[in-house]
Design goal:
The protein is built from nine helices and 14 strands. By secondary structure, the chain is an alpha/beta fold.
C-alpha cells in the first residue's frame, strides 16, 4: 500500500506535534510493555521505533517490561506446568530461576538490542541491579512472588542523566538475597511513582476501559480516580482490568501526573497518545480532567 503523503503533509504533521514535543521534552515517561504487544515481531519493531523517536526529541523514556508468554514457553519446554492463583503466577525456586533467566536475560537484552538497532542508546537492568526494586514475599501460597517494599531510582536517574534509555525487567530481591517475580504492571506503577513521571503508559491487549467489554466503540477516553471507583462498583472494570486500574490509581497516588491504558497492538499508539490531539486508550487522572 503506498501513501499519497506529500512533504507538505509531513511538515504539517510535525508542526502539529510541536506543542506536545515541548510538553514532554525533558520529562520522564514510563512505558510498561509486555504480554501480547510483545509477541508480534512487527509490532515490537514499531514500539521500539516510537520509543527511540521520543528519546531523540528529548523525552526521558523508561521502559519497564514483562515477558509472561516467553516464560510460559520455556516452562513448557522444560516440562513445567504454570500455575496461577488470582492471576498471579505461583513461583517456586525453579520457576523463579526460569523467570530471572527469561526476563533479565533473553527478553531484556533482545529489547536493548532492538532499541540500539533503531538508533537509540539503551541499557538493560533488572530490579535487582543497584537494588532498584526491593521486595518481600507477598504470600507463602504464591512462593517467590514479591511485594515491593522499596524503589531506588538512583541507577535509573544516572542512566537518564547520561542520555540512555533504561530497560528494566521486573525481578527483585530482598535483603537475604532471595529473588522474586514482580507483577509487571505493579513494578511500572511503583517505578513511575518513584520517578515522579509525567506519564505512565500501560500497553495492554485491549483498547482501554470499555463501558461494554465486548464493544470497542464504548471506550471511555478519560476517568478520574473517583470515577474509577464507581466503575469498579458497577462491574464495568472487571476481570484482568481490575489489577491494571488498581496499578493506575497506585501510580497517581505516588505522584504520577496521569496514566494511560492503551492497546499495544495498534501501530504507533505511543506516538498517537503523546504527540497528537487524538490520544489513544483511557487516561486515568488524579481528580480533575486534564
Amino acid at each position: 500500500m503506498t501513501h499519497s503523503f506529500s512533504n507538505a503533509d509531513r511538515a504539517e504533521v510535525l508542526t502539529q506535534a510541536l506543542p506536545y514535543i515541548k510538553r514532554y521534552t525533558g520529562k520522564v515517561v514510563v512505558v510498561k510493555y509486555g504480554g501480547n504487544a510483545m509477541i508480534n515481531e512487527h509490532l515490537k519493531q514499531q514500539v521500539m521505533e516510537d520509543i527511540v523517536l521520543l528519546w531523540l526529541i528529548g523525552v526521558k523514556v523508561v521502559l519497564v517490561h514483562g515477558g509472561g508468554p516467553e516464560i510460559n514457553e520455556l516452562m513448557d519446554k522444560l516440562g513445567k506446568k504454570a500455575q496461577f492463583v488470582d492471576g498471579l503466577r505461583v513461583t517456586d525456586q525453579e520457576t523463579v530461576d526460569i523467570v530471572q533467566m527469561v526476563l533479565a536475560g533473553k527478553v531484556n537484552k533482545s529489547l536493548v538490542n532492538l532499541l540500539q538497532m533503531k538508533g537509540g542508546h539503551a541499557v538493560g537492568l533488572s530490579g535487582i541491579d543497584g537494588g532498584i526494586i526491593e521486595a518481600t514475599m507477598k504470600n507463602e501460597k504464591l512462593g517467590f512472588v514479591g511485594e515491593i517494599t522499596k524503589v531506588r531510582t538512583q541507577p535509573i536517574d544516572d542512566l537518564l542523566e547520561k542520555n540512555y534509555i533504561p530497560v528494566i525487567s521486573t525481578v527483585a530481591s530482598d535483603r537475604q538475597g532471595n529473588t522474586y517475580n514482580i507483577n509487571g504492571d505493579t513494578a511500572a506503577a511503583y517505578i513511575a511513582g518513584a520517578l515522579q513521571a509525567e506519564r505512565l503508559i500501560m500497553m495492554t491487549d485491549i483498547a482501554g476501559i470499555l463501558r461494554d467489554k465486548d464493544d470497542p466503540s464504548t471506550l471511555i477516553p478519560e476517568i478520574t480516580i473517583e470515577e474509577s471507583a464507581k466503575l469498579f462498583e458497577e462491574g464495568v472494570i472487571s476481570g484482568g482490568m481490575i489489577p491494571k486500574v488498581d496499578c493506575c490509581v497506585e501510580a497517581i497516588h505516588k505522584g504520577v501526573k496521569n496514566v494511560i491504558i492503551m492497546d499495544g497492538r495498534v501501530p504507533h499508539s505511543i506516538l498517537m497518545e503523546l504527540l497528537t490531539d487524538e490520544g489513544a486508550g483511557t487516561m486515568v487522572t488524579g481528580g480533575h480532567h486534564a
